[in-house]
Amino acid sequence: MPSSLPKVAQLVGSGQYGLLLWRSNSGTAPTELHLPATFPTASTTVVSDLGTAYAPPSYGSATPVGVAAEPGGTGSRRLLLTDTDSGVLHYALVTNGATAPSAVLLTAARSELATWAAQKAG
After folding, report:
1. Backbone angles phi, psi at 54, to 5 degrees
2. In a domain, 1, yes or no
3. How far is CA 95 from the centre of its chain?
4. The pLDDT of residue 66 is above 90
């Protein structure tokens, strides 16, 4: 993790993480990430411009950040990220490194990631 993102590094700790940066389109389908078994819902943290969640809720139409079962009954999960715009740059950090992160840490990490994403968009 870059030293320019100390709160993100604190959130990730020694855990695994993935960072996604994407530009939305006008489609209605959510952006979908397949979570490996090492990312159980109860210990997964998501920090995104779309929302922030520790142990993300089940995906629903009013839930911009949520999880759903993988089709086929494999026991795996998908992270679904829903945006309603077109052409906007979005970001999402997914990690299993935090244990019950504080709202203060989540907000600080989100701020660092927003700044980072804005630099990448430029």
Report:
1. -105, 130
2. no
3. 8
4. yes
Question: What distances in angstroms separate CA 38 from CA 43, 58, 84, 89, 97, one per listed residue?
Answer: 9, 18, 30, 28, 11
Let me know: does 117 contact 49? Beta carbons within 8 Å.
yes
SS3 category, 115: helix
- Would you state the pLDDT for residue 104? 96
For residue 50, the number of C-alpha atoms closer than 13 Å in the C-beta half-sphere is 28
- Band of the pLDDT at 106, cuts 50, 70, 90? very high
**80 within some domain:** yes
* 83 domain residue, yes or no: yes
Distance of alpha carbon 73 from alpha carbon 58, whole angstroms: 16
Model pTM greater than 0.85? yes
Over range 67-86, report the average pLDDT. 86
